TrEMBL record:
<keyword id="KW-0663">Pyridoxal phosphate</keyword>
<dbReference type="InterPro" id="IPR015421">
    <property type="entry name" value="PyrdxlP-dep_Trfase_major"/>
</dbReference>
<comment type="similarity">
    <text>Belongs to the kynureninase family.</text>
</comment>
<feature type="binding site">
    <location>
        <position position="265"/>
    </location>
    <ligand>
        <name>pyridoxal 5'-phosphate</name>
    </ligand>
</feature>
<dbReference type="GO" id="GO:0030429">
    <property type="term" value="F:kynureninase activity"/>
</dbReference>
<feature type="modified residue" description="N6-(pyridoxal phosphate)lysine">
    <location>
        <position position="210"/>
    </location>
</feature>
<dbReference type="InterPro" id="IPR015422">
    <property type="entry name" value="PyrdxlP-dep_Trfase_small"/>
</dbReference>
<dbReference type="GO" id="GO:0019805">
    <property type="term" value="P:quinolinate biosynthetic process"/>
</dbReference>
<comment type="function">
    <text>Catalyzes the cleavage of L-kynurenine (L-Kyn) and L-3-hydroxykynurenine (L-3OHKyn) into anthranilic acid (AA) and 3-hydroxyanthranilic acid (3-OHAA), respectively.</text>
</comment>
<feature type="binding site">
    <location>
        <position position="239"/>
    </location>
    <ligand>
        <name>pyridoxal 5'-phosphate</name>
    </ligand>
</feature>
<feature type="binding site">
    <location>
        <position position="187"/>
    </location>
    <ligand>
        <name>pyridoxal 5'-phosphate</name>
    </ligand>
</feature>
<dbReference type="GO" id="GO:0009435">
    <property type="term" value="P:NAD+ biosynthetic process"/>
</dbReference>
<keyword id="KW-0662">Pyridine nucleotide biosynthesis</keyword>
<dbReference type="GO" id="GO:0030170">
    <property type="term" value="F:pyridoxal phosphate binding"/>
</dbReference>
<protein>
    <recommendedName>
        <fullName>Kynureninase</fullName>
        <ecNumber>3.7.1.3</ecNumber>
    </recommendedName>
</protein>
<dbReference type="InterPro" id="IPR010111">
    <property type="entry name" value="Kynureninase"/>
</dbReference>
<feature type="binding site">
    <location>
        <position position="86"/>
    </location>
    <ligand>
        <name>pyridoxal 5'-phosphate</name>
    </ligand>
</feature>
Amino acid sequence: MSGFADTRARFHLPEGVIYLDGNSLGPLPRAATERMARVMQDEWGEMLITGWNKAGWMAQPGRIGDRIGRLIGAEPGHVMVGDTLSVKVYQALAAALELRPDRRVILSDSGNFPSDLYMAEGLIRTLGQGYELRVVAPEKVAEALSEEVAVLMLTEVDYRTARQHDMAALTAQAQELGALTVWDLAHSAGAVEVDLAGAGADFAVGCTYKYLNGGPGAPAFIYVAPEHAAKASPALSGWLGHEAPFDFDPTYRPAPDIARMRVGTPPVLGMAALEAALDVWDMVDMREVAAASRKLSTAFIEGVEAACPALRLASPRRATERGSHVSFHFAHGYAAMQACIAEGVIGDFRAPDIMRFGITPLYLDEDDIERAVEIIARVVNDRLWDRPDYATRAAVT
């Protein structure tokens, strides 16, 4: 993995820690500390409110959107950054439903992140009018598509197992039946190759605090395909999505393009950290990142299975069918993960029994994988997890 030595040097990685949790929160890019200090001191501190113009704060959401767009195969000018992922899911789903007024079914799967399903349920309660959320097993999505479906809403990479949907095939099938697609890229952006334009996706959303390393609570993004950008109606009609915000018009008029998906005031400090992280991403090609991830994750699976027979693989075995994390079933998974963390390998736990490990070649190499396997094997085989304090659930797992 020598090709990523330069990117590894760009991250702060605590001494003695093997960080396998980039799928929940990426590590700190070293430049983010200086970038945020500069924004706070030189921009906020010295420019005060004039920073919206002088420092270009108002243009940040679109500018950063294009930088993310490069990583997900989006056309320039069709990704906007801001708000949270749940807000962006709501926006995309509401806009897609309005573009299919004669249909009432939202199709999703049981591998979707719960917040996406909660957003759909909440939107359905608000709309009334007989809307229905149908949730099927991930492998049953294709056969569940029909001319009743208004929107197919899926997370491309399953947050638990890393199972990856075929975006291009499902998008084509959905559109052939007259449905629109909303893809959640939370575990895709910066993890796997994504080609939104090539797949013909209608809408996509994602977060930036995972593989993109934007920091805790970093802003989310939304993509709207060119054919929908001037027609999609924003259910959350925020001031900054107005055609002319500083006209202070009492009646909402949507901006003519992706800017209509802006809602609230841009999180300038959070976006400063995100821009520093994206500087690292400018150094790499996603095809190389994805290939390296597959190599590392395959080595990780082979190592864990050879050393820890008590762990059962939850992720697809074939590398091309999974994202950039690997999960194992273990009855004592929560306690075992706490023991791993205490021993210097940080992953996370997903109920009911999944130990989840993110594989990120930007800052991990073969030696890290080998050492992680050794530690995990010692934790499991020597029952280091069998302590009462490791079984006590914390607020965040």
